Amino acid sequence: MLFDLAKDTRRLRVGLFAGALSLLLVLAWIGLREARTEWRSTQADFFDLTGDARHTTEILQNKNCSGQTERCATCHLGARRRDLGAQTPKVYRAHPPSMLRHLERRTGCSTCHGGCGRALESELAHALPGGRKRDPLLGQPYIQASCARCHLPGAQEGMQRLVAGAEIYVRLGCLICHPLNVGGRGSWDFGTDLRAPGRKSLAYLRMSLIDPAANFPGSTMPSFKNYFSDNPEGLTDVLVFLLSLNIEDAGDCSRGNKTGAGVDKPCSGCHAGAGGRAGGRMAHKCVYIVERKDELGCAACHQHEIPAPGPGGGRCPVINRHRPNCVVCHETGEGDRPG
Amino acid sequence: MKGFFSALWGNLSGLPGNLRRGLRPGVAEGGNSAAGRLRRSFAYHLHPLRVTRRALRASTTLGLGVVSLTAFLILGVTGVLLMIYYQPGTSDAYASMQDIQYAVAMGSFVRALHRWAAYAMLVSILLHLLRVASMGAYRGRELNWLVGLGLGGLALGLAFTGYLLPWDQRSYWAVRVSASMLDSVPLLGLAVKNLMLGGQTVGQAALLRFYMLHVAMLPAGMLALIAVHLWRIRRDGGLAGAPEDGEDSELLPAWPHLVLREALLMLWVLVVLAAVAALVSAPLGAPVDVHVPANPEKAPWYFLWAQELVSYSARLGAFVIPALLALGLVGLPFLDREDEGVGRWFGTRNCRLAVLLSGLGAIAALALFEVFYMQAGPGVFFKALGTVWPDVVNPGAGMIVVAILAMLTTGIATDSTRAAFLSGLVVMLIMLLGFTLIGVCRGPDWVFYWPWEEWPGVV
């Protein structure tokens, strides 16, 4: 069969035209999708609701206390408003006044509530960075777990649950298997290291207390179901404490607190963060160390105090992981001490 | 003065024509003829004036080279767009990726397009290599075969360096795993690792080096080699292999029949990739935690076969088998000097049959090895041997044995070097694909799970 030059050219042109049209359609679809993102409609609805004259839509962002960008304000436009009624949809509702000073001090949102501050889609923003959906945002009553990032338990008002949870943790003897001592990971291999990263979900933690074998078949951990059935509030308190043990996922406060305002944990302000960043993961979550921090001081283990954190302040002293100064706690001879 | 104004007026009134002639030099001489177009246009000048009808047939080459080139061009454009926002610092990289993914207008689309185009390029380059090898199209084109292998290597390098840049948990540990494979490479392994990472660990130095390699050094090398690769095709006389007599050898003008065909393919590759990118966004994992590896830590999928082989034997998977494969590919045009069957899919009829049988044998052997190696049952003897000589008794070593066997039996049966080497290559590639699939199925602690099984310990 002879090659039909004209027909072939025609077919090629039709193909090119169809291709170009398809490309335009795909691009138009992407453009349309871009113009109708969730945050744009959330903003438009807010201005409709308040009767605000403002019509422009823009991403609203700010930095939290550790210098991380947050875009929560893009949708949560009513956080500082007092004039919106109780019928306002949750996304626009005003922040409870008790903790408003954190907002004024630019603490940011994810510092306490967790989530992924840079994301704009609610589904992503309310999950952990990377879209891990294991955890909802921290809210009442578990929000107190986040206080421990910057404050010593009990150092400020509004941390009752955290303190009560730590007390129950000690009273129930959790420390025997989950000691929370310094010395790095792997220093204890009996119970799970509760400071290990990869925060478990609230449901997982609750189940671990009620029915440990349900999470981990063959677990030798006793069930605390009976204890907590009489004391549901105590269960919440312990969960708050457990959440506070591993809060590096809760936000991005891992580079150290830049403002320092209201922070009463000069070392843990920096060292409570994620590994690999300021100071690694030497978070002092041992209740004994936290209790006796003022008495002991950082120098008890670290040999010398940091002169002044920040630029030009010198290197933070790193504890020797393999030879931690255990005797500080372990040779006091007090019966309820671990070890 | 009058002369000046009239000259100026003449120039201005002649502007449209002069613009056309000035910006499209050669239009006047060549007219708008097909030959003229090919001669004066930069984009078309690589084409000969006339091509055979066989060259226009889709089944001749499947257009795989054009697909790779298109993917490379898309990667260049999207890559430059991503560079506007990306910051190659360990403390900023992940945040800038989040910005691109979440806040930058069309950022997640551009990123997804970059990611999927990269994968399309890797796959099409591999298929292109297979096509050329299966047709013996390297005959008399040894240099271009080597240039093509270089391009494949650079593409792997680009994919690997790009994998680290998001600086999320997945990319960090994938690169750490891959870099640790270099420990098993004798002599140069440690030096290469030091040079690549700027130290022994994956940190700021490594990120900056990977970034530099990814955006400057490797793309520049790729561009240069692509130019040589295309130029050599023209110099070597177009597609390899003489067309059969009859209608296949009919000569047709390259414009528009070849040029528009290529344009059509490029356009549709772009359309498909854009549609996929619009539907599926590229994953962005959790931020890096250098203390806590993901379990399992997996290499990028195109190195997964190596990781699977390393799980049997580090020396074998990270060094012996990749080296054998590279050596075999480099040596192929010098070990096979046959002219019969060049330009036909898998050469002669005997060759096709041998390759088919070898491929089936490879699948059977792979299944057998894995059953023996994974489940103690009937393979308890091999399992025991495997613990004594882990480098010698394992599925990876078995693959080499099967490939050599396939090569020898094919060679003896067909008296053809091409059939022998093709059989060996096909056995290797099928089994490496199998190891990749097994690697995909590996769960925590590198335990095998079927895709429908849930991994334990995931909450």
Task: Summarize the structure in short.
The complex is a heterodimer of chains A (339) and B (459). Chain A has helices spanning 5-35, 38-50, 100-104, 110-113, 122-125, 160-171, 174-177, 202-210, 212-215, 225-229, 232-245, 268-271, 287-291, 293-296, 299-302, 327-330, and strands spanning 62-63, 69-70.
Explain what this protein looks like in three dimensions.
The complex is a heterodimer of chains A (339) and B (459). Chain A has 339 residues and is mainly α. Chain A has two domains: 41-125, no CATH class; 142-339, Cytochrome Bc1 Complex, Chain D, domain 2. Chain A is 37% helix and 1% strand. Chain A has 16 helices and two strands. Chain A has helices spanning 5-35, 38-50, 100-104, 110-113, 122-125, 160-171, 174-177, 202-210, 212-215, 225-229, 232-245, 268-271, 287-291, 293-296, 299-302, 327-330, and strands at 62-63, 69-70. In chain A, strands 1-2 form a two-stranded antiparallel ribbon. The longest helix of chain A has 31 residues, at 5-35. Chain A is flat and about 90 Å long. Chain B is mainly alpha-helical. Chain B has two domains: 48-292, Cytochrome Bc1 Complex, Chain C; 295-459, no CATH class. Helices cover 69% and strands 1% of the residues of chain B. In chain B, helix 9 packs across helix 15. Chain B is globular. At the A-B interface, helix 1 of A face helix 8 and helix 15 of B.
Strand content of chain A: under 5%
Oligomer: heterodimer
Largest interface: A-B, 53 and 40 residues
Q: What is the CA-CA span between the terminal residues of chain A?
A: 92 Å
What is the CATH-assigned architecture of the largest domain in chain A? Orthogonal Bundle
Radius of gyration of chain A from the CA trace?
A: 26 Å
| SS field, number of helical segments of chain B | 21
Notable traits:
heterodimer, A: 339 residues, mainly alpha, Cytochrome Bc1 Complex, Chain D, domain 2, 2 domains, 2 strands, flat, disordered C terminus, B: 459 residues, Cytochrome Bc1 Complex, Chain C, two-stranded antiparallel sheet, 21 helices
